[in-house]
Amino acid sequence: MMTSSLINSFTSSIATLAPDAAGHAAHAEPGAIAAGPNWVLLIPFLPFAAFTLNALYAAFGVKSKLPAWTTVATLAGSFLATLAMFMNFDGTPYTVQAFEWFNLHYGDKSFVANFSFYIDTLTIYWMLFVTGLATLIALYASEYMSHDVGQGYNRFFAAFALFVVSMACLVMGDNLLMLYLGWEGVGLCSYLLIGYFYKKPSAVAAAKKAFIVNRIGDLGLALGVYLTFVHFGTVQYAELFSNETLQSYIAAASHGDFGSIPGEAQWIALLLMIGAFGKSAQFPLYVWLPDAMEGPTPVSALIHAATMVTAGIYLIARMYPVFIVSENALPIVAWIGTITAFLAATIGMAQFDIKRIMAYSTVSQLGYMFAGLGFLTPTGGAYHVLTHAFFKALLFLCCGAVMHGFAGQLDLRKLSGLWKVPGWRIVSIGMLIGCINLAGVPFTAGYFSKDTILAEAFVTPGYAFLGWVLLLTAGMTAYYTFRVFFRVFVGPVEYHPGDELHDHDHDHGHGEEHHHDAGQHGDHHANHFHPHAPGWAINTVLIILTGCSILATGLYFVGGDKDAHTKHYADTMVSESSASYHSHYGTHAFEYYEKDPEHYPEPGHGPRGSIDKALSMPITGGDPHKMMYYISGVIGFVGILLAALLHGPKGLGGLFLGARTNASECKMDAIAKRFGPIPRWAENKWYVDELYHAIFVKPLRIISHVFHWVDKLLVDGIVNVFGFLPRVFAWIIRPSQSGVLQGYAVSMAGGLAIILFVVLVIVARAGGAS
Amino acid sequence: MSLDVWSLIVLIFFPALVGILIGFVKNDDNAYRIALATTIALCVPAVALLANFDFSHGGMTQFEHSIPWVPGLGLEFSIGMDSVSLLLILLSVLLGPIVVLASKTAITKDRKMYYAWLTVLQGAMVGVFAAQDLLLFYICFEFTLLPMFILIRKYGSTNRIAASTKFFLYTFTGSMMTLAGLMYVVWFVAQDSQLGRWTLDIAALTHYAGNMTLTEQGWVLAAMLAGFAVKVPLFPVHTWLPLAHTEAPTAGSVILAGVLLKLGTYGFYRFAVPLAPEAFFEYAPLIAILAIIGIIYAGLICWVQDDIKKLVAYSSVSHLGFCILGLTALNVTGFSGSILYMLSHGFSTGGLFLMIGFMYERYHTRDMNTVGGLASKMPVWATFMVFFAMASVGLPGLNGFPSELLCLISAFQSDAAWNAAGEPGAWGASLGPWFAVFAGTGMVIAAMYLLYMVGKICFGAYKEPADYHPHDELPTDLNTREIITLTPLAIGCVLFGLQPTMLLDAISEPVNNTVRIVEQANGIDSQATLSSHYSTGGGLMSSDQVEQLDEISLRHAENPGTEAHVEDLAEIGDSMKSADQSDHDHGGDSHD
Hints:
Chain A has helices at 2-17, 42-59, 66-88, 121-144, 153-172, 176-194, 201-232, 237-241, 244-254, 263-279, 288-291, 297-306, 311-318, 320-323, 329-350, 354-374, 378-405, 425-439, 445-459, 464-488, 500-503, 509-513, 536-551, 569-575, 589-595, 624-647, 667-674, 678-683, 688-733, 741-769; strands spanning 94-106, 109-119, 415-416, 494-495, 650-651, 656-657.
């Protein structure tokens, strides 16, 4: 009876995907899903129009802020359209087709992948924050990139708009090929934007690295998509999720009977997973993301923190039905996520570049999201995506404002006390709000979303160890987050400009301009440098995002659906999509058991083993969901306290416990020395880049060179020997007339045909006769 | 003769006439103008053919016409086209004006001869694809060598003599072997088949050639491959290409990449597969392995090049590996992908060669250590360069992707064990997932070398050769003529990327016909496909399917040899053919 209820729970969620496939497992008609309103196409089309216009501006050399306003206006339109889509959504998924893309018939089957969009709650959930944040960050960039007006400004916004188009294709596409199109499209835009300062060798190298590392993941994704087609005969979501074969696999998987599921079906998830690891910067493919910080900061905020890097989580959530039929995929996702979260946090603790710290923190937080998916809580993963998108974008934009104002300075040893510098209060408050979210201070949005994942580690059987590792990582996160805040924003006022002041004379017109209006900014600087406080566009965006990050807490309390047993907005949006995972051992295992133990007679049987023990938290006991509020809250505070002690200044009535009196020195310096070389190793990212270079890049380069020489000397050499034969022949017969050598060659080759023909007749006939 | 046939005849012979005419023109500028006008004018009959072609019967030979020459020996002059030929003809015609326009300032000496040979080459290429008999095919196939040989030898760069000699002798020797193989088929059909007369008609040869024994087919296939594989070029007979590509003038490289390499893959598709279907089936995995070695090996060689043109030249070897992989899968997806590759590869790689040509005219070097960081000096050029590089990488939405996708899927599909959705037309030779995985690494390698190239030539600090001085006529960045040259290729890249279905529909019928030839020759009917799936796939079966399977195994018991053993399959194929022959009122003495 448990089996049947399991299947029912799944088919009921599938029913919302493909209305005709509910209950009876009949042949799902292709294209049976309802067609939606065409105005939905505006969501990808408006940014595309912006891309086209910006490209035209570039072609005609527009020298104003026109591309920025075009982009902001169209993206705002796109956001409003998404909002309208959300408002009008009645719970039934639908598709909207733009045009036919792939349609290859063979036999009585066909390979169909159209340029069309699939709208369900998961799509809407993702598109709302993608278009919303893109609009805000475009507005921010209009000011941030202003020194490039007339130069790279058009190019920047063209790539920016193209990114949103690609992201829309990725998230809204109704088939895996559209997802792949968006996937590679965002990769291209990421490449173009990381390499925006293309004269800088480090930026070019970072862009190249990002694209190539991503391509390794993309290979996995591509093979996974192809195998999906070869195995299930479709790449369209609606058909795939109602596919009978997949349904029967799911039924088998719910008993833990993975043996009856063919290996090739289980391979699909493993291949798709590699793609997710590449795009979402998970171990071992995470190395590109920190380097991607070479791009302009709005790009880092939008692409490399809030949206593109969450594509891997989207992929797994979208393809959850395929992932749960693979015995090893989700456990690997959980382990890799945890390893990444921990590893990136250790590196983040030792960095001095505040943007890099945020980059490693992004890698680490993405690890949490993956762990959430692995712990069978796609809701937790997707919820953390949303809250993280807001507070991490906010943190990056604050770092960007600092970078913009202090001529590229990002070293936390060279900045201090910005809270007290006139014009920097909004940035400081934004940073504080972002930091308390990231650190998981109780009652922030980041706290609730992280707890959902952490609690699930103790609910889902077999993951308690990972749960403890993630808790430790949460403490480390709080420490490195507030290390930045206490170093840069509080304490004595001191700042040193970065080096952009010197080599960007004509690019940074404002840098020079400030030399003349000296006086009002205080005296805490060398060589007459005055920070360039953010203007209205940056401040507006920071205020809005600060507000969003605070209000995001509210999302934990609204939007739940009692009938569907969902607790809040994110839960509802995820649970009503293909990522739904209502089952006895899934997200709601504990609640079901607590509310209705009678109807939960077999708690011991899930695909991952027994859940009996999981119903209470190891060591502390009690419901993991509730215990986590206390445990993670305490751990977060410990991290912040450590940061205050080691990096904070003295003062404010004992609130700050540290003893820092200038920007560059703090208590931590002495402590770090006791650890010997370890902090230096961590600062150098555990030499993973060097390791990769030594074991992959260098040998491959050597092999390539060897191939090149083999090709030149051996493969071509043999040909040359044959080519030389006619000459030898000619030389023997008639050594005097070397001018007609090629004539001999041609006639020899001509004779060859006759000789060969005769040989063929003899050999082939002889063989044929035997 | 209908107007369409005349159009076709004009496309083949008019360029040759104009070529001779150009030889007598006094003024070099006029030679350029005439060549340009001719190549543009030729688009008119080409478009007329496109408009009048009946795509609902794309597999049928249309606009067919033949003039007997020596009837006793079966010698005739016969033209016509199916949709595959039509599309390749359109590609050749489209490239004409592009290469002429691109040569305006690049060629400075003896321009008359240059444009004369370039124009003549146009007709020869159309002739290859339009030929319906072996004689015309072979004449045109060989004749394309001569203009290209002269273009490289006379107008190439420093190492042109060696490059042209190797190009000519290598491909010529190869095609002699092909000729021997084709001659054997003709001889076989005349001697041993029920036709009882000499014929050079390709359709007739295709119909009867399958009667050859596996051994005979094997030898014929080997002979044909010797020529076609050199042309493609397939590893390890590729070494002429990097040299020829590098030394050829820009127009030569574009034509070489766009059309002449496709003569090899076209030969595979049109002759090697249908004339030796059993042997091809047997040896397909071997050929696929060579193709995959080529993808990886040539791709890695690209990655360590300093000479930008050599890099793109080697990338052709790597890319064409996908094309051959699709052919060896022997299923609908594979053939479709492969033909799509033939059509689309010329757009992106041709575009890259044009970009390099425009750069070379200004900087007179191909060494990426000497020239680089051009984005700051030539933003328009750099934009096009990044675009064509991305098309070449196989970015979805651009032309490289659909063909690469289908070729990789076809490799997966052609392994029955992994193809749970196995259906008629999906099953082919025994490649399988590992072929797809190893070929797939080509995706990563392509990104590695193309981004390495873009990173060096477009981005970074600006570098120019020590003796650089601005070009007399050309501006720093691209001029209007050059942009006009690139635009059709760029549009093609986007169109092929977003509307592959247009092409897939057009070639659907000929592709299905070819698959049928292979399936029949090897005794794979839809039932056999099903059985191989259900006996090895281990998927879940409905009761209907189980019944079906029982029925099949019953039949197998009566008729042993339907195990997936190639020789046994071949036997069944033979027995089927015998039945086919008796239908056609022919005796059964085809072999043994």
